[in-house]
Write a structure and sequence with these properties.
heterodimer, A: Ubiquitin-like (UB roll), 2 domains, 5 helices, 16% strand, globular, B: eight-stranded mixed beta sheet, 20 helices, binds FE2/S2 (inorganic) cluster
C-alpha cells in the first residue's frame, strides 16, 4: 500500500491530525477522514464551487488542493460557520429568503459569501454576482441567493 | 392555516449548516466497498475480447464483474428490457458500462476501471438524424402520426404559407449531486438500498430482478436528492443494481457514485429535436394549417423516449387553437447515451416548435409576434376576462377550442394573464424603446419577446396517476408522515406536511417528514410529471382525514355532539363545550383504543387516453404562465445577455408561494440555459466532448438578469386538486423559450430576412443568424 502522509492542521479552529494518501484531495480528506461532509463534490475540477472552503482565509476549491498541503494551515468549512449553535446571519437569511432548494450548492455558497463579506462588508449587487460566479446552482436561478447575501450584509453592517 | 403560506424549507437549518445528508454523506461501515464502471471507448461494435487482468490486480481491487458473472436479469431499463447493466457483447455508445470494478476506495475503483484492455470490432456508428433515417434505425417501427382536421386541404386554401427547419439541442441535467447509491446486505439475502432516485419503487423492482428476489426482500430509501430534474427517474437504476449485485457477491456494503465526467458520459440527457414546419395563415396571422415533423435522437435504449416524444406532440399546439394540424414524430435510435426524462419531458421540444412558427409568421407579416400569438390563443375560459367573439368572425367559428388530440380546453386563462403581464412589464413601451435603440445602434442590438406556456398536467401513462400515503399520530400528538413522493429540492415534503397539518389543525413543526421508503408505501410512481404534490398531497390528506374522523368520533362522545361538529384548529380540538389540545385528544383516543394510523390513496379522476390514436383526455388540467425577456446581442461576436425577465405564472391557489416562486425562477433560468449557453457536442466518433462544467456551461450567478420580476397569477384551479393548487415543477421551464425568441428578435433587427435562429443560441449561432438576417443565407 502506498505511504500515508501525516498532516497536522487546524479545521474550524480545532487542531486536527490525519493520515492521508498523497493523492487524496483536501475534499476527500474532509469528507472521508474527518467526517465533515458539508463540502460536496460537484465536479472535482474546480468549476462548480460546491467544495468551497477557506485556507488561511482564502477561498479555494478543496477538490483542487491535496490533503497533504493542509499541513500547518487553517481550514474553514461550512461546519464552522455557525457559532455555538447560533446560525450566522448569512445562514438565517438563506432560510428566510428561501435561497436554497436541493441544498447541495448551499454550503459552498455560504462559505464563499462569508469570505466576501469579510473582505467587503458592503458589496454591490454586481460584486455579489461576480464573486459567486464560480458557485454553480442548478435549482434556484440565483435570485434569492443574491437577495439573501445582500440582506445579510446589511444586517451585519447594522450590527457592527 | 398551514396551506397557502410561504413556510421555509423543512431542512433549511440542515442545509445551511452542511448537516443535511445525501447518499454520499451517509456514514458507512468501515468495510464498505466502492464501485466504478469500465466504459466503452467506441460508439458501436462488438466486444471480441476483454483482458481484465490488470484491473483485477490493481491496488485495492477486490473483484471485477462482467455480464457473465450476473446471476439473474442483466437489465436496468425502465421500459422494454433493452438496457443491459453490463454490455452483453454489443457496444451501443461511447461510455457504455462494460465491466464493474469493486475496490476498497473510490479512487482505487476509478483508477482500476481505466485499465481494462478491450478488443473490439467496430461498426460505423449511427449518430446523426440522417444516419438514423438512412439505416431506418428507430423505435416503434415507424413514425407516429396524429392529426386533426385536414391540414393538407387547409394549407392549399391558406393565403400565405411559410416553412422552415428548426433545431434545438439536448441538455445535461447537471443535478449538482451526481448519481449515487449505497447497498447494505441484510440477513437472509435481503437488501437495503439508499439511492438518489426519483423512483424508489423502480429501483426496488430492478434490484429484486437482478438478485432474483421478490420485491419484498428489497427495501429502498430516499431521503433527499441534490437535484433530479428527470435525470434521476431511470438513470439511477444502474448504480443501485450494481451496488446490490456487488453487495451480494462480497457480503459487504457497497457504494457507487459517478464522478461528474462519468456521470455525463454514462447517463442520458434531454432529447434534442429537429423540426420541419410548414404552416398556412391569413393576413392577420391566424394559422389555418400546420404540419410538423419531429425528429428526436433517442440514443441507444428506448428508456422513456416514447412518452417523451408523445408529450412533444401533445404540446405542439402550446396555447394555440389549431383546427387543421398534422404531426409526425420520428423516434430515432442512435449510438448515444440514452436520452431520457428531463423537466418538461418532451413538452419543451414540442412547444418551442409552435413558438418558432409564431415568430416566423410574424416576421413574414411584419407584425409584432405577440399580436400573432394572441390572435391564435384558445378561447378564454368563462369569466369577466373572456374576450367576446364577433359573430362574423369565421375563423373563430372554425375554432373548436379543442387540442389536436381532442381534449377541450376549459381552463384557459392566458388572455387575461398576458394582458396583465403586458401591462406590468411595460411591454409596449419597451417594444418602442428597443426599436429606437436598434435604429440608433450599429453593434449592439436588443430584442424583446413575450411567450406563453400551457402545460398539461398528468402522467400520459394513465395508470401512473396514483399515489399512496401512510400517516401515524402518536399519543403525544406528534405526527409522522410518509408518502411515495421524493424530495429533490422542490419542497414537496414541506408542501405535503402543510396539507397534513391543515387537516389536524396543528403546526407544521408537529409533523415529521420521513424519507421515502418502499417498505412504508408500496408501488409508487416516480416523482415526475410535476405530479408530486397533486398526487401525494391528496393521498396524505385522505390518510389524515381517516384518522381525524376517528378522533372526531371519539371526541364527539365526551363532547355530546355530532362527530362532524368536532373542529380541529389552532392546535386545539373542540367538541361541544369541551376543548382540549390535539395532543390530549390523541392521548384520549389512544386510551379508548382508537387506531391512530392510516394509509391513504388517490387516483386522478377523469383521465382517458388512447396513445395509438392520439385522442382523449390525457391531462387533468393545464398550468399556464408567460414570460417577457429582453436581451442584447453583440453583432460582432455573437455574445449575448439577458437584461431583464418578467414572469407571471399560474400555480393555482399556491400551497406555498415561496416554494412556487423558487420553482418558477429556477425553471426559467434552466430553460433559458437550455436555449443559450448549454451546448452538448459529440464528435464524429460519438464521443461527448462536453462532459464537465469546464466545457458545458449552465447559467452562473453572473448570468442572472439585472431585472428579474416574478409573480404568481391568482387563479384557483377549476379542478378539484389539493387545495385548488396547480403543479409547478415543470411548467416554468418553458418560460425560458422567451429568451430564444428575444434573441431571434434581436437578430432580426440586423436585416430584412428571417434569422432562423436555432438553439442553444451560442455566440456562433447568433452570428450565423445575424448573417442570415442581413444576407438571407
Ligand atoms: S467539486 Fe470542487 S469545484 Fe466542483
Ligand atoms: S439548491 Fe440545488 S444546486 Fe443550488
Amino acid at each position: 500500500m502506498s505511504n500515508k502522509i501525516h498532516v497536522s492542521t487546524k479545521v474550524n479552529g480545532d487542531a486536527v491530525e490525519f493520515l492521508c494518501d498523497p493523492r487524496e484531495t483536501l475534499l476527500d480528506v474532509l469528507r472521508d477522514r474527518l467526517n465533515l461532509t458539508g463540502a460536496k463534490e460537484g465536479c472535482g475540477t474546480g468549476d462548480c464551487g460546491a467544495c468551497s472552503v477557506t485556507v488561511d482565509g482564502r477561498l479555494i476549491c478543496s477538490c483542487l488542493m491535496l490533503g497533504a498541503e493542509a499541513e500547518g494551515k487553517e481550514i474553514g468549512t461550512i461546519e464552522g460557520v455557525a457559532e455555538g449553535g447560533e446560525l450566522h446571519p448569512l445562514q438565517r437569511k438563506f432560510i428566510e429568503h428561501a435561497a436554497l432548494q436541493c441544498g447541495v450548492c448551499t454550503p459552498g455558497i455560504l462559505v464563499a459569501a462569508k469570505n466576501l463579506l469579510e473582505k467587503n462588508p458592503d458589496p454591490t449587487e454586481e460584486q455579489v454576482r461576480y464573486w459567486l460566479a464560480g458557485n454553480l446552482c442548478r435549482c434556484t436561478g440565483y435570485d434569492k441567493i443574491i437577495r439573501a447575501v445582500l440582506d445579510a450584509a446589511e444586517e451585519m453592517r447594522g450590527a457592527a | 392555516m398551514s396551506v397557502h403560506r410561504s413556510l421555509g424549507h423543512d431542512s433549511g437549518t440542515l442545509h445551511v449548516t452542511g448537516a443535511a445528508r445525501y447518499v454520499d454523506d451517509i456514514p458507512t461501515p468501515s468495510n464498505t466497498l466502492h464501485l466504478a464502471f469500465g466504459l466503452a471507448g467506441i460508439a458501436a461494435g462488438r466486444i471480441t475480447g476483454m483482458d481484465l487482468s490488470d484491473v483485477a490486480s490493481a491496488e485495492g481491487v477486490i473483484a471485477v464483474l462482467t455480464a457473465d458473472d450476473l446471476p439473474f436479469a442483466n437489465d436496468v431499463s425502465p421500459s422494454v428490457h433493452d438496457e443491459p447493466l453490463l454490455s452483453d457483447g454489443t457496444i451501443h455508445y461511447l461510455g457504455q458500462p462494460l465491466f464493474l470494478v469493486i475496490a476498497t476506495s473510490q479512487l482505487y475503483a476509478r483508477k482500476a476501471a481505466r485499465l481494462g484492455k478491450i478488443s473490439v470490432q467496430e461498426t460505423p456508428p449511427i449518430l446523426t438524424v440522417e444516419d438514423a433515417l438512412a439505416a431506418d434505425s428507430r423505435f416503434e417501427g415507424g413514425p407516429v402520426v396524429w392529426s386533426a382536421g385536414d391540414a393538407k386541404t387547409a394549407m392549399k386554401a391558406s393565403p400565405h404559407t411559410v416553412e422552415g427547419r428548426f433545431e434545438v439541442g439536448g441538455q445535461e441535467h447537471f443535478y449538482l449531486e451526481g448519481q449515487s447509491s449505497l447497498a447494505l446486505p441484510q440477513e437472509n439475502g435481503d437488501m437495503v438500498v439508499h439511492c438518489s432516485t426519483q423512483h424508489p419503487s423502480e429501483i426496488q423492482h430492478k434490484v429484486a430482478d437482478a438478485l432474483g428476489l421478490p420485491m419484498h426482500a428489497v427495501r429502498v430509501e430516499t431521503r433527499r436528492m441534490g437535484g433530479g430534474f428527470g435525470g434521476k427517474e431511470s438513470q439511477g437504476n444502474a448504480l443501485a443494481v450494481a451496488c446490490a449485485l456487488a453487495a451480494r457477491a462480497t457480503g459487504r456494503p457497497c457504494k457507487m457514485r459517478y464522478d461528474r465526467d462519468d456521470d455525463m458520459m454514462i447517463t442520458g440527457k434531454r432529447h434534442d429535436i429537429r423540426i420541419y414546419y410548414r404552416v398556412g395563415f391569413d393576413k392577420s396571422g391566424r394559422l389555418q394549417a400546420v404540419d410538423f415533423k419531429h425528429f428526436l435522437r433517442c440514443g441507444w435504449a428506448q428508456d422513456l423516449s416514447l412518452p417523451v416524444a408523445d408529450r412533444a406532440m401533445l404540446h405542439a399546439d402550446n396555447a394555440y387553437d389549431l383546427p387543421d394540424i398534422r404531426i409526425e414524430s420520428h423516434r430515432l435510435k442512435t449510438n448515444h447515451q440514452s436520452a431520457t426524462a428531463f423537466r418538461g419531458f418532451g413538452g419543451p421540444q414540442g412547444m418551442i416548435g409552435i413558438e418558432r412558427v409564431m415568430d416566423h409568421v410574424a416576421h413574414e407579416l411584419g407584425m409584432d409576434p405577440l399580436a400573432v400569438r394572441r390572435a391564435n390563443y384558445y378561447s378564454e375560459a368563462g369569466g369577466p376576462s373572456a374576450p367576446p367573439h364577433p359573430p362574423e368572425d369565421i375563423f373563430r367559428q372554425k375554432k373548436k377550442n379543442r387540442t389536436p388530440y381532442g381534449m377541450e380546453v376549459t381552463d384557459f386563462v392566458l388572455g387575461a394573464l398576458t394582458d396583465k403581464l403586458e401591462g406590468s412589464s411595460g411591454y409596449q413601451a419597451r417594444r418602442a424603446a428597443v426599436a429606437e435603440w436598434n435604429a440608433t445602434h450599429e453593434v449592439l442590438k436588443r430584442g424583446l419577446a413575450l411567450t406563453p406556456v400551457k402545460f398539461g398536467i398528468s402522467f400520459t401513462l394513465t395508470h401512473l396517476n396514483q399515489a399512496g400515503a401512510l400517516v401515524h399520530v402518536y399519543q403525544d400528538g406528534s405526527v409522522m408522515l410518509n408518502h411515495g413522493g421524493t424530495e429533490m429540492g422542490q419542497g414537496l415534503f414541506l408542501k405535503v406536511a402543510q396539507v397534513a397539518a391543515e387537516v389536524f389543525g396543528i403546526g407544521v413543526a408537529q409533523v415529521k417528514i420521513t424519507a421515502t421508503d418502499t417498505a412504508k408505501v408500496p408501488n409508487t410512481s416516480a416523482t415526475a410529471a410535476s405530479s408530486g404534490s397533486d398526487l401525494n398531497g391528496m393521498a396524505v390528506r385522505a390518510a389524515c382525514q381517516t384518522i381525524r374522523d376517528r378522533i372526531a368520533a371519539h371526541m364527539a362522545q365526551s363532547g355530546h355532539c355530532a362527530p362532524d361538529e368536532v373542529t380541529f384548529a389552532g392546535g386545539q380540538v373542540r367538541a361541544g363545550q369541551k376543548q382540549v389540545s390535539f395532543a390530549q385528544a390523541a392521548q384520549s383516543a389512544y386510551q379508548a383504543r382508537v387506531s391512530l394510523s392510516s394509509t391513504g390513496f388517490y387516483k386522478t379522476p377523469d383521465l382517458q387516453w388512447d396513445r395509438v390514436k392520439g385522442k382523449g383526455r390525457p391531462f387533468y388540467y393545464f398550468a399556464y404562465g408567460a414570460a417577457v425577456t429582453e436581451v442584447v446581442i453583440d453583432t460582432l461576436t455573437g455574445e449575448n445577455r439577458i437584461l431583464r425577465a418578467d414572469i407571471l405564472h399560474d400555480a393555482g391557489r399556491s400551497l406555498n408561494p415561496a416554494l412556487d416562486i423558487g420553482q418558477i425562477e429556477g425553471g426559467y433560468v434552466q430553460g433559458a440555459g437550455w436555449l443559450t449557453t448549454e451546448e452538448l457536442v459529440w464528435d464524429g466518433q460519438g464521443r461527448l466532448r462536453t462532459h464537465a462544467p469546464s466545457t458545458y456551461k449552465i447559467p452562473a450567478c453572473s448570468d442572472r438578469p439585472d431585472v428579474f420580476n416574478v409573480d404568481l397569477f391568482d387563479n384557483e384551479n377549476r379542478e378539484n386538486t389539493i387545495h385548488r393548487s396547480k403543479a409547478v415543477g415543470e411548467p416554468p421551464f418553458m418560460l425560458g423559450i422567451s429568451a430564444l425568441m428575444a434573441l431571434s428578435d434581436a437578430c432580426a433587427a440586423c436585416g430584412p430576412h428571417y434569422p432562423g435562429l436555432d438553439g442553444p443560441a451560442t455566440p456562433e449561432r447568433v452570428l450565423a443568424a445575424v448573417r442570415r438576417a442581413r444576407d438571407g443565407i
